[in-house]
Amino acid sequence: MAAKLPHFGLMVPNADSRSPDHEVRAPYDRSAIATAATADAAVVETALATAYRLYRDRDGWLSGARRVEILEKTAEIMTTRAETLALEAAREGGKPLIDSRVEVARAIDGVKLCIEGLRTQSGTEVPMGVTASSLIRLAFTRHEPIGVVVAVSAFNHPLNLIVHQVAPAVVVGCPVVVKPAADTPLSCLRFVGILREAGLPPEWCQAVITHGRDVAERLVTDGRVGFFSFIGSPKVGWALRAKLAPGTRCALEHGGAAPVIVAADADLDDVVPLLVKGGFYHAGQVCVSVQRVFADARIARVVATRMAAGAGKLVVGDPTRAETDIGPLIRPAEVERVHEWVGEAVKGGAELLAGGKPISATCYACTVLYDPPPAARVSTEEVFGPVVCVYPYTDIDEAIARANALPVAFQAAVCTRDLATALRAYRRLDASAVMVNDHTAFRVDWMPFAGLRQSGHGVGGIHHTMKDMQIEKMLVVRSKEL
Q1: How far is it, in rounded angstroms, from Cα 181 to Cα 172?
Q2: Positive/negative CA dihedral, 217, 245, 238, 461
Q3: Is position 451 within any domain?
Q4: Percent of the chain predicted with pLDDT > 90
Q5: Average confidence (pLDDT) over 48-61
Q6: What mean pLDDT is predicted for residues 90-105?
Q7: Whether residues 249 and 340 fall in one domain
Q8: Distance between CA atoms of 215 and 182, rounded to whole angstroms?
């Protein structure tokens, strides 16, 4: 008899759903690993009503001290269960265990960053008494929660993204309703469960797996939502932003086609391994993954050949095994799409130096293409797969212009030993962050993380998200004693 799958019930108090359970499958072998209850329209209404009632009852708000206590306990519980959380994230999301362990460590640190942020943030004094009209007055600001937060998340970092969207809401005192990606909901449900175990009343953080797109849209566009946090595709993100209720604030994080400029004087022994890591980490399913490498024509062939050699050494397979470097794509359809894009580029004249074929129905070989056509989809759209393109250039300004030619802009990089070259690229690249002698996917959780143009709206990062989820409220005191 087959073992019964773990089941996750509704995480909305006092709600009952008539929609069917959702089956979660491992992306590597497509085996069923869990089932979870889904939310119909009635459940979404209950969740929103509950969250809004909490926000409107100011006397019932959790104190800052209580919120800090809850998050401190949350970090402690996560630390004791770190290996379990990493294994589950690897199994449901396909990111190899070695990288999922890093994700869990980052998530724990993210919770701690929320605590630090609350303890160190402060309001400002607004000058008074400097004109006749402002005499005998004192003015200053303090922070309050913005309202109900609705967070919609992506699959590629199933625990850390949830921490980035949920923990800031908890620490600043916003009731939050979170909708994880349907492919990877388990890490989110575990995290919400840990928050509750740590003492957070269930009503303050509710998780829903919505049944049907219309139900998800109803959750996001409701007039009771104060802040909408979205991580996912630009098509969905921009469409939802256009439907938000008047007054709802938002932050959107989409993707890009990250460019790297490699100058002729770059230390290839140092930077090529970094570019290989940044291009193929999590099978390229990262919004700032290295995708377009513009290398000086004098070294471009060497860069491409070395990257191909590095790609060929990566172990592709079961993400739960410690020796695996690269796991599966999230769905078999993504393997088919990536292969179609690669085939199109090769047919158009790109030289295939590594990979270029499916390894299985769920895994794709790490692929390096040399000089794909400018109009190919691998050159103009986010691949979100294990594909890196290397293009030769003869003039660095021309390379920068090509890097800037797309409607997306996120993080970029330049590899050089020359300070002037680095600064020239920094000033001219369209990006919210430019890495020097590093890959484009570098990130720590306290730094600003922002997609520009079609790549997003607003700024991510723990402290920046906390700021977005609060208002700075001014108090003006008039007294003759001032």
Answers
A1: 24
A2: negative
A3: no
A4: 98
A5: 98
A6: 97
A7: no
A8: 13
Residue 91, domain member (yes or no): yes
Torsion of CA 303, 309, 315, 316, to 10 degrees: 70
Q: How far apart are CA 192 and CA 175, in angstroms?
A: 13
Task: Report the distance separating Cα 8 and Cα 61, nearest Å.
Answer: 28
CA–CA distance, 417 with 301 (Å, rounded to integer): 19
Task: Classify 69 as helix, strand or coil.
Answer: helix
Identify whether residues 12 and 155 lie together within a single domain: yes
Its sign, for the CA torsion 233, 426, 290, 178, is negative
Whether 287 is catalytic: yes
Label the pairing between strands 32-36 and 408-409.
unpaired
d(CA 361, CA 62) in angstroms, rounded, equals 49
In a domain, 2, yes or no: no
Q: Identity (one letter) of the amino acid at 209?
A: I
174, 188, 250, 287: the active-site residue: 287
The whole-model pTM stands at 0.94
Q: Answer whether 206's CB lies under 8 Å from 12's CB.
A: yes
* Six token digits for residue 339: 């292969």
Question: Is there a single domain that holds both residue 231 and residue 354?
Answer: no
Q: What is the CATH number of the domain that holds 204?
A: 3.40.605.10
- Residue for token pair 């998050």: 71
Does 243 lie in the same domain as 263?
no
Name the β-bridge partners of 225. 148
Q: Verify that 224 and 116 share a domain, yes or no.
A: yes
Q: Which one is catalytic: 253, 334, 382, 389?
A: 253
Angle at 92 between CA 412 and CA 241, to 5 degrees: 55
| DSSP for 72-131, written as a single string | HHHHHHHHHTHHHHHHHHHHHH---HHHHHHHHHHHHHHHHHHHHHHHH----EEP-SSS
- The CATH number of whichever domain residue 309 belongs to comes to 3.40.309.10
Residues 248 and 262 in one domain: no
Whether residues 213 and 273 fall in one domain: no
If one counts the domains in the chain, the total is 2
Count, residues in the chain: 482
Separation in Å, CA 179 to CA 133, 231, 284: 49, 11, 24
Domain that holds residue 431: 258-445
Q: How far is it, in rounded angstroms, from Cα 196 to Cα 397?
A: 54
Residue 309: Cβ-neighbour burial (10 angstroms; 0-12, 13-18, 19+): middle
Name the amino acid, one letter, at 362: T
465 and 405 part of one domain? no
Predicted pLDDT of residue 1: 47
Say if residues 219 and 210 touch (Cβ distance below 8 Å).
Answer: yes
Asked about 253 being catalytic, the answer comes back as yes
243-289 pLDDT, tens digit per residue, is: 999 999 999 999 999 999 999 999 999 999 999 999 999 999 999 99
- Asked whether residue 460 is assigned to any structural domain, the reply reads yes
